[in-house]
What we know:
Layout: E1 15-16, H1 48-72, H2 78-99, H3 113-137, H4 143-150, H5 153-163, H6 171-190, H7 196-219, E2 226-227, H8 229-251, H9 258-264, H10 266-286, H11 292-314, H12 320-338, H13 340-360, H14 362-383, H15 392-405
Antiparallel strand pairs: 1-2
Helix pairs in contact: 1-10, 1-11, 2-3, 2-8, 2-10, 3-7, 3-8, 4-11, 5-7, 6-12, 11-12, 13-14
InterPro entries: EmrE-like, Sugar_P_trans_dom, TPT_transporter
Transmembrane segments: 48-69, 75-95, 115-132, 138-162, 174-192, 198-220, 232-251, 263-286, 293-314, 326-347, 367-385
Membrane topology: Multi-pass membrane protein
Amino acid sequence: MGDSEKYNEKERMSADIGSPMRDTAAPMLPTVNPDVQKKEPPASKLHPAVYVMTWITLSSSIILFNKWILDTAKFHFPITLTCWHLVFATLMTQIMARTTHFLDGRKSVKMTGRVYLRAIVPIGAFFSLSLMCGNMTYLYLSVAFIQMLKATTPVAVLLLGWAMGIDKFDVKTLINVSFIVVGVVVASFGEIKFVLVGVLYQIGGIIFEAMRLVSIERLLSSAEYKMDPLVSLYYFAPVCAFMNFCVAVVFEIPRIQMTDLHYVGLWTLLANAMVAFALNVSVVFLIGRTSGLVMTLCGVLKDILLVAASIAIWGTPISALQCFGYSVALGGLISYKLGAATIKAQFSEMSRAWAEYGAKYPAMRKAIVFGAVVLFVFIVLGGLAPSVGYDSTYLQSVIKDSDKAQ
């Protein structure tokens, strides 16, 4: 389970920054004092569930928010939107570094100019390309299908790690992750609104994200360079913002008109950047307060909720074949991240707790079982339909026809 936690969603942006590029003779970057030890955060009085729910809410909200701005609000400038997020993050981290203690961890990171140029900059380039491709995908694919495709990110990281000799090849691991690939392939065949361009952009985003994570593992993996997500953002955001701006100024900014900004709303763009930055802050509070098991299950829960939200908000049609394929992919993802031993132990614990609950509350246990059976039958019968979701175009035509008839 330990090695697989690094394959979480890109929004965590935590990294272990290491020493192969380190040059002790190089001058230290400004504001960095290697003699200052990293302070432990004070113990929180809030229950860990509060931090988990906050992370799930913000992580889901930024994905839905981006989709709404880029698609529904017709602001078809994903690279510019990504650049705006990173500029805002750069400003906020600089302000917080000078006014708060949230970024005191940077003082224990021995960042040199050599490490910054030879490690932070190239890794930032991969991160920037990953973000751009990810936002481009929202113009073509539904949120539900995007989440299904993202399930293959750990597979890409694993294969790239094997190819570069960072991880040792393991047949059991390959068989384990093959379930993720098969599930996503089945879900892709079941996708009703399949757009090849969008799929290619998402594949590109997954590849660049895998290159970013593997580069961090190979170039910058040392305990003395360990960063929390906010410190990582402090170093990477300026590089990514500059790279995004260079691309946006060529392909998008000349086409942006004031009507585009007024239509989506300046306050909307500000709120969008604030949610994106708040997500990184929430991860800082979340780390160390939950286990890897909880984080993995919460990530799966978040993906399922996003699929449901996509159906509810945009009427995304989901076929029965797609549901089956995504279920297989999620099962493979959980198995790969947690391992068979952990899953078996958790099932044993759950069985024991369920037996104790049944002995203490037999009537309630029967009611829960009956409700689960009814829900299962409802899901199976619903799967017999060709798709789930409503056709907004069809509904509008029906309403117009009824108005004309009156």
